[in-house]
Write a structure and sequence with these properties.
Length: 123
């Protein structure tokens, strides 16, 4: 079992949801986040990212620039990880700075609280 953590552009969220739905990925957590990568924050005007002024105000505090992203968290069976990662890459690739990052981490166990199922059955 693995946890897939992906940081993607907000504008690519619908494409990503569609492709994950086609793969029958049933459990996805999506959280709006602010962050930066190697570019240390990019000019949102040049990048074509539509940003609400309140978010920009928060992002530019203390002289550090942050870019709005969506963080997706998916826990998947080992045999499905490569397919899911490839789908996320395919739906988010533009070739420009800010396409995102994906992290794949081992997950020791999962427990569904309602039924007390564990492991793959809990997914």
């Amino acid at each position: 079992m693995k946890e897939i953590i992906a940081f993607i552009r907000p504008s690519k969220m619908n494409d990503t949801k569609e492709i994950l739905d086609k793969l029958n990925v049933s459990s996805v957590t999506a959280i709006p986040v602010l962050g930066r990568g190697h570019q240390r924050g990019i000019n949102t005007v040049l990048s074509g990212i539509d940003v609400h002024p309140d978010i920009l105000a928060k992002a530019n505090t203390h002289g550090m620039k942050f870019v709005p992203k969506r963080m997706l968290i998916i826990t998947a069976q080992n045999e499905n990880v490569d397919i899911i990662v490839d789908a996320i890459v395919k739906s988010n690739y533009t070739g420009f700075i800010g396409d995102g990052k994906i992290f794949v981490c081992p997950t020791d166990d999962a427990i569904r609280i309602r039924t007390n199922e564990s492991g793959d059955e809990a997914l």
